[in-house]
Amino acid sequence: MTSNRHLQLINPEEQFQEQVWEQSGDLIVDPNSVKAKIYFFLHWASSGAAKLVLPNGSILPVTLSYDTDEAEPSCLWLELPKNSSSGFGSLQVATVVISIFKATYRLRANVVDRDQFCLFISLPDSLEVLGARNFPRHEIKAERNHPLKRANWVSKNGQRFEITIESIGLKTLNFMSVDFQISEGEVGEIKLGSFTTEAKCVKTTNGNIICEWLISDSEYHKFFEIYASVSFPKLRTRTFYSGDDVFALYKNSGYFGQFGKADAFKPEIISTWNSLSVGHSYENVDYVTQDQELKPIGASSLTKAFVHGKTNYWAFHQLCALRREEEIDTTGLLYSWRAEYLLGLKEDCMALVWYRSRSRFIEKIYSKLARNRPDKIRLSPVHLVKGTLKVSENFKKSKSRVAEISFGEQIRHCTYSNSVVGGYGPKWLNTSGLLNCVFTLSDEDSSTLYTQEASNLLSTKGEGEGEFYFCYLNEKTDSGLDGAVVGESDRFCVFSKTSLMDLLASIEHGIAVAKRKKEIA
């Protein structure tokens, strides 16, 4: 068998975008669509997974491939693990589950030939879209020897039992209990290392237990650190490193170059970081990626930044990474952890991000997805203008709602009136000042309303002037800001919480495309 070449019989970009439209339970029967899905999987097989479902219900990981000497596959190959026992001789129809970029399909096909460790199956006539997973889940494999593989269940009467964790999710925990029984509906405590929280048994089958987390907002950030140790083992909270180390990372990655010289403000920036970490509230989160030598190579932030009515808007911001092609998978974590963090929150929130369209990688992640999900994602080209606002002597504070958000020792003020939203402080919450911003959630913007809301915020803080970003949907010649300059970002994207699983798939696909281009180059 020759080495795999990449199928050129489909447009992988179009096939990925089609996935975000599919619904759980859909049955794909159009021959061309079925063929395109199979080819799409084969095109990205290294980023996917395939499993053979045996008649007794057990599942066997397999490699799904084809004869690359053929211009178009005449059959599919299911390569079995070399340590798998025999017993496939009587199998006439193979049931296979394939997963790629968060999309999962089930196919059934006739076995047309076989050898000791390979089944050859016909191309299927249909594909079933399996129940879409609403939340990520990560396995804890025995060979990883993860410290969380063993944990404890403490019942309401105080009995403690050791459990073996199979997988951990944002909403559920899957573990094995051999020496004791847990009834569905029973509530107990789960002890994961130094973290303890309540959980409720929702399903039990032959010693396999699925529990639902009962985690409060106040302990969510602590839980996510535990969760991230499994799902994102190369992540560390910003407090793991000194302020000097993180500042050096920002500087060496070129992040500060977008916003002028930052060295003069280094003491203020690090002081703000330290004060934000006091109490470590779940509303502001910062993670750093590290290389094999445990040195920081990237960072990104997530902040509850704005309020509109009962809806909280969280900002994806402050992302930087050293340019290392070999660490592209690690760089991808800077995007995905923020989406997973929001997915685990109880609240129904929105996520927003400003970015520069000249980055093809970011355009692939955000823009292409947004154009295919207009019902869940709002994408706007914008003009981001930065300058100083001075509160007029005749200013009268409006009746706009002003809310407070606490970050450790720091307070942020948010305001909204109709469709105009604004937020201000702490000064170095974002080191570019980007989150001191006013924007609109409608299709129209107004310098007058922007100035009003920004003045409201300054008045609340007892300040006569302050630096702001005004985010315009249309180019403005007079922003009302002194010394106004146009910012780097020219895209503004707002995601509903229900679109974040699609975003995670888009991130995975973007990373795979970047790696494939590196292979071809």
**CATH level 3 topology of the largest domain:** Aminopeptidase
Q: Which band does the percent of strand residues land in?
A: 35-45%
The poorly predicted ranges are 1-6
C-alpha-based Rg, rounded: 26 Å
Oligomerization category of the chains in this entry: single chain
Query: In which order are the strands of the major sheet placed?
Result: 16-17-18-19-20-29-21
Please estimate the helix content: 10-25%
| Average pLDDT rating | 86
Q: How many separate structural domains?
A: 3
Tally of helical segments? 9
Topology:
Elements: H1 12-19, E1 27-28, H2 31-43, E2 48-53, E3 59-65, E4 76-79, E5 93-100, E6 103-115, E7 118-121, E8 127-129, E9 137-139, E10 150-154, E11 160-169, E12 172-176, E13 187-192, E14 195-205, E15 208-214, H3 217-231, E16 235-237, H4 243-252, H5 266-277, E17 284-290, E18 296-308, E19 311-321, H6 328-343, E20 350-355, H7 360-372, E21 377-381, E22 383-390, E23 401-407, E24 410-417, E25 420-424, E26 437-440, H8 447-461, E27 465-472, E28 482-486, E29 491-496, H9 500-520
Parallel strand pairs: 19-20, 26-27
Antiparallel strand pairs: 1-8, 2-3, 2-5, 3-4, 4-7, 5-6, 6-7, 6-8, 9-11, 10-11, 10-13, 11-12, 12-15, 13-14, 14-15, 16-17, 17-18, 18-19, 20-29, 21-29, 22-27, 22-28, 23-24, 24-25, 25-26
